[in-house]
Amino acid sequence: MKGHRLYIDGEWVLSDSEAFFDVVNPSTGLVIGRMSKAGADETKRAIDAAAEAYKKWSVTPPNERGAILRRAYELLMENKREIAEAMTLEQGKPLKEAEGEVAYAASFFEWYAEEAKRIYGETIPSWYMNKRIMVLRQPIGVVAAITPWNFPAAMVTRKIAPALAAGCTVVLKPATQTPITAVRIMALLEQAGLPKGVVNLVAGPANDIGEALMKDTRVKKLTFTGSTEVGKLLMQQAASTVKKVSLELGGHAPMVVFEDADLDKAVEGAIATKLRNCGQTCISTNRFYIQESISQEFIKRLAERLKTMKLGDGFEEDTDIGPLIDNKSYLKVKHHIEDALKKGAVLEYGGGLKHVGATENGGYFIEPTIISGICKDMIISTEETFGPVIPILTFKTEEEVILAANDTNYGLAAYLFTESLARSMRVSEALEFGIIGVNDGRPSTAQAPFGGMKESGIGREGGKYGLEEFLETKFISMAL
Ligand code: ADP
């Protein structure tokens, strides 16, 4: 079986131990590849390479950096199908969704290819007429990028593209479940002409690699997407050398459907936020607040729509929903459903838990499931489910639902459905979340700032805001 290699200083290398770890297809449980298993030593070498490459890359003209990013965009689009296939194989999402993700991933290169040229400084009028004040924006240095398995391509490019545009160099640690998509992206960056050492890839035990990255003083910035728990740990580790951090962590998104909403739009919004990637996205809705007078009709229409969706292997043409990533996820989702039903929730649709894989590691399919009668003591009310479960709550007034929606430690995304312009503005402003979808279940896009409030994170990714995270601000005071 083919063994994928680490990418360090422009070379495709094996780890010192020459050990590998298995990569599994979550749809079947079968091993589909092996990835070289790096540890602290390889990570240190990757940082050495990134630190050396930084000397030149940070002073490479922005238009030249932009041209390489543009080429990376083109290469990703030209190789869309092939990368999507690698992704479906290791992650399980339907191939059409994987292709959509590759295009989304590529759009970060497209956007930041342009943004590289627009890192403007400022001059500030001094109060002393013999002085001039200039503000420069400069790259922050070597970046550690740690990415999750749910978007194996887009989370990599959303971090790497702005970092490279800013003039930073990168050590990437992709999720252990999905390293192969990241390997493919590295190969395309190499093909795009990125100089050696500017990006490096190490994969393997997260603790060892994470610690090596966090304790190294040469790493100036951590950009992380993953669980709130690991984000907090990394933030603590980063504190010892005062690294700048951006963290995109968990969520517990509310979707509020008012009685003046277009219900068909709301149903499509619910499908988009909840069933994309089998509910395994940090902006997936976890609480569906439906105004009392329309809740039965909403459930009926949603259930009808769910009947048309097919659960299955991502490579089958008509599959809409793939498997969960692994056994741990499967058990968690199952537990959330069972806990709610035990505490009095009503099963409105679905509930089927299927294990059809070849081994105990795979084939973890969970039918889309609607449950109503949710109360606060159910785990699903407070914890992120990361699966295709739709918990329905009802409400009477706008004031009441705003309080309920904000009653969480998370603050990543929230959705509202209404045809009232005034209400959409009023409620958007009152919701304590970084991303608000108004009649929109798919707000993510390369041009906009993605990120959360409260324990959902720090910093933003995307748009001009995403670039800020990789820049230092320097002020020069010049006495004439
Ligand atoms: P999930 O529960 O969705 O897998 P994690 O936060 O565990 O989310 O994983 C997100 C990323 O963080 C992955 O690349 C994972 O390998 C990495 N990771 C997990 N634990 C650590 C750690 N202790 N130090 C550094 N990275 C970690």
- Distance between termini? 68 Å
Number of DSSP E strands: 25
Bound compounds: adenosine-5'-diphosphate
Name the CATH superfamily classification of the largest domain. Answer: Aldehyde Dehydrogenase, Chain A, domain 1
Integer count of domains? 2
Kindly provide the name of the CATH class of the largest domain. Alpha Beta
* Overall 3D shape: globular
- List unreliable stretches of 5+ residues: none
- What integer value in Å does the Rg equal? 23 Å
Largest sheet: 7 strands, mixed
Helix content: 25-40%
CATH architecture of the largest domain, please? 3-Layer(aba) Sandwich
Please name the CATH topology of the largest domain. Answer: Aldehyde Dehydrogenase, Chain A, domain 1
What features would you describe in this structure?
- With 480 residues, the protein is of the alpha/beta class.
- It has two domains: 3-249 and 456-479, 3-Layer(aba) Sandwich (Aldehyde Dehydrogenase, Chain A, domain 1); 253-445, Aldehyde Dehydrogenase, Chain A, domain 2.
- The protein is 38% helix and 24% strand.
- The chain is built from 14 helices and 25 strands.
- Strands 15-18-19-14-13-21-22 form a seven-stranded mixed β-sheet, with helices on both faces. A six-stranded mixed β-sheet has the order 10-9-8-11-12-24, sandwiched between helices.
- α3 crosses α4.
- Bound molecules: adenosine-5'-diphosphate (ADP).
- Adenosine-5'-diphosphate binds at residues 146-148, 173, 175-176, 206-207, 210, 226-227, 230, 233-234.
